[in-house]
Amino acid sequence: MAPRFSRRRHGTVWCDEPAIVTDTYPPAPPPATRTARPSRVQLFATCLVDRFFPGVGHATVAALERAGVDVHVPADQTCCGQPAFNGGFIDEARAMARQTIDVLSASADPVVVPSGSCADMIVNHYPELFVGDAAYGPKARELASRTYELSQFLVDVMGASDPGSRTSARLAYHASCHGLRGLGLRDAPRQLLSAATDGQCADLPDAETCCGFGGLFAIKMAPVSNAMLQSKIDSIESSGAEAVVATDVSCLMHIGGGLRRRGSHVRTMHIAEVLTGSDHE
Amino acid sequence: MSESTSHDSTPDSSPAHGQTAHSPAHGAAAHSHANAHIAGAAFHTRIDSALADGKLHQALSMTTGRLAAGRASAFAALPDADALRDAAQRIRAHTIAHLDRYLVEFTTNAERLGCRIHWAETAADAARAVVEIAQASGVSLAVKSKSMLTEEIELNTALESAGIRVVETDLGEFVVQLAGDRPSHIIAPIVHRRREDVAALFREKLGATADEVATIPAMTAFARKTLRGEFVNAGMGISGVNLAVADTGSLCLVTNEGNGRLTTTLPRVHVALLGLERLVPTSADLGVVLQLLARSATGQAMPVYTNLLTGPRRRPSDTDGRGEPDGPDQVHIVIVDNGRTRLLGSELAEILYCVRCGACLNVCPVYRQIGGHAYGGVYPGPIGSVVMPGIWGLDAWSELPQASSLCGACRDVCPVRIDIPRLLLKLRAQAVRESLAPLWLRLGMRAFAAVATRPAIYRYIGNLVGRLGAAVARDGWLTGLPGPLAAWTSSRDFPAPAAKSFTQSWRPKRRSERARA
User: Would you state the pLDDT for residue B403?
Assistant: First the structure.
């Protein structure tokens, strides 16, 4: 639909003029193309899942295998570097990004990440980190083009919007920020959760408001981070849900830590655990 | 534009007051790193007092929630909202990329209309220019419509020390001035005050009767009555400029109270303060941005008053012998740099696209917790966290870019699509380059990167941490962490690391096993 202003001026004159900012990356990549369904994927588990929530890693493997792909877990994977990048430590972030790019470029298989935030790091920030780098620039863009968050991969690439499993638990969904706003992850996780709960899974009140984690922000700005967390927990408790579900264990460990400190009985579940009927607690 | 909802807080207890180190009007280039740490400590103290203020929190969530919901429904009802935002971004990007050209075009056209242009490099230059204009015209009373730029250059202080009385006529700013306060929001200056506090203030400072402050309409009528006399007697009207139009030399000023129109037409001298980035090339471009401005700010399709001021009052000889009955005899436009040109061509140039709608404040989960005063500067919230350190130096403002979880809600609502999180990351990287990050973090991050780029060592240390964590954890959780990490466990539990990691416990299945699974 044509916007209500002159196309001639805005479509031609202004568009052709280069702006000063030349290394801007769009906040969201183009939606995943549903071409050929891959038969094999690499799992980038993320450092948090690997060391703190191994059960989520196993659930992710199970969900992927149920969707019909072989899962390979590259042994030398560590951390994507997002903590350094978000803290402004660009050299350290680049070092960790190079490590991750090398590990995930040994194979050309798509990469699946059980975290919207770490996937956003690879998809949107790796290319930005290596602008002008002849060696890693092309590698970063290539890796970004075949990296997916778990629910995005299941729904958009595999066309598997029904996980096949069913749970009767009362679940409420929290939309993690980087997946939501960085990857445009709106429908895929909700479709999967809706199918797994026969339409019972609802959004939390203010589901798209940040829980206050923000990585180092939770330490450096702990009082504000905690105030945001308490608002989130108020929403969770008012929802009447038995468990809060998200695509990221980072948000869930923050929310879970707050729920536990408050003595709440509400649990946290990663979306992979809902899809496979497992539970990391 | 202004919102005048009032709520409560205790601004006088804020250590921000009287902190000249935080005033951009006094320049920031000279601050040492030691000052940066003092400024950082003050920021954390202000945050703590804001968080402890239950009434402030209530007021903030109510008003920011209402404004954000208004914005959301206005945009939902706007066809082509995304295309409009794309166009507005292109217009602003183009203008900033060619600012030299459009400043010349604008000033040439404005001078042709009879406006007088004053260039001000610093805040002090700008304030001095206004004082000199007032003195040259023998002005002793000036009325003002709302302008954040005049807050930035501390104009009221300059005018008052020159013996010129100045009266704020925007209702919110009127309250701010009466209370000796500062605005805490770009468009809703007294978002932090409750109506009963405004009532008490009117009774105390203006001698209002109980009836005159019984309801909000009564208070508004009372303020209106008080201000009418000032409008009539003022020799000078001072306004900001929302956007200046280069090809016509016009000034666009939007308000919701009509005070802007009185300020710019009734007194014989009008002084407009224009931030030098606030231009659009043509009236058609203005039309694009105006479709977004009020919707972003308050959820209104248009502001109540949209003024296009094109030169001073025309004399009979100017227009077919009849002239214009209303309008000022003189229009002065003070074009203020005050550090803005430092951003041109830099990695932060995008922040100059900003049209000061305040939408990013209303959706920011940090602003909604701490309010505007905690930020300590003229411009609060996400936009302020880029503008303050970007224009006036990271030394004095290094903590502001840290005050974000990078959730991206600000980017989602910006009418000119400024990628604020990306700019915050640029500033954080700059802070690390300038060694403004704390030592524990610098060392910790270096060590983490060294380990994470050596997978065997990473696994070895991970296993040590895992075994240690599993040994001290209770039910899989830790309730106290050492060192800087104690900031987490002061209010939240932390999950214990697993004794066996996922990559250790995962084994590729054989094809036969997968078939059974």
Answer: 97
Measured at the alpha carbon of residue B200, what is the angle toward residues B149 and B256, in degrees to the nearest 5?
Answer: 40
Both tokens of B40, joined, read 């950082």
Residue A14 scores a pLDDT above 50: no
Residue corresponding to tokens 């609502």: B413
Q: What's the pLDDT tens digit per position in B197-224?
A: 899 999 999 999 999 999 999 999 999 9
Residues B332 and B471 in one domain: no
List the helix and strand counts (H, then E) for chain A: 16, 8
DSSP B110-145: HHHTT-EEEEESSHHHHHHHHHHHHHHTT--EEEE-
Q: Indicate whether B215 belongs to any domain.
A: no
Provide DSSP, B394-407: HHHHTTGGGS----
How does DSSP assign B238-292, residue by residue? EE--SEEETTTTEEEEEESSSHHHHHHHSSSEEEEEEETT-EESSHHHHHHHHHH
Is residue A176 less than 8 Å (CB to CB) from chain B? no
pTM confidence score = 0.91
Whole-angstrom distance, CA of residue B85 vs CA of residue A66? 42
Whether the per-residue pLDDT at B237 is higher than 70: the answer is yes
Least confident range of B3-17, B18-32, B52-66: B3-17
User: Which whole-number Å values give the CA distances from A213 to A229, B411, B456, in the listed order?
Assistant: 8, 18, 29
pLDDT digits (tens, 9 = 90+) for B81-99: 999 999 999 999 999 999 9
Q: So what's the ipTM on this one? A: 0.90
In a domain, B481, yes or no: yes
- Residue A217 has its nearest CB partner, among B51, B404, B430, at B404
Chain A residue with CA closest to B407: the answer is A177
Q: What is the DSSP letter of B59?
A: H
Task: Give the residue-averaged pLDDT of B299-311.
Answer: 96
The answer to whether residue B472 sits within a structural domain is yes
Tell me whether residues B408 and A178 touch, CB distance under 8 A.
Answer: yes
Instruction: Give start and end residues of each alpha helix (H) in B14-98.
Output: 33-51, 54-76, 81-97
Which residues are bridge partners to A202 per DSSP? A172
Can you give the residue range of the structural domain that contains B96?
11-197+236-315+326-337
Phi, psi dihedral angles at B505 (to 5 degrees) = -90, -10
User: Structurally, how many domains does chain B consist of?
Assistant: 2
Q: Which domains does chain A have, with CATH numbers?
A: 40-156 (3.40.50), 161-276 (3.40.50)
Are B476 and B332 found together in one domain?
Answer: no
d(CA A95, CA B375): 34
> Which residues of B are less than 8 Å from A62 in CB distance?
517
> Nearest CB to A79: which of B93, B284, B452?
B452
Chain B contact set for A82 (CB, 8 A): none
Q: How far apart are CA B395 and CA B32, in angstroms?
A: 7
Q: What is the 3-state secondary structure (H, E, C) of B429-467?
A: HHHHHCCCCCHHHHHHHHHHHHHHCCHHHHHHHHHHHHH
Mean pLDDT score, A55-83: 97
3-state secondary structure of A157: helix
Percent of chain B with pLDDT over 70: 90
- Beta-bridged to residue A172, according to DSSP, are A202, A244
Query: B514: pLDDT confidence band, cut at 50, 70 and 90?
Result: low
Chain B's closest residue to A260, CA to CA, is B493
Give the tens place of pLDDT for each residue, A216-230: 999 999 999 999 999
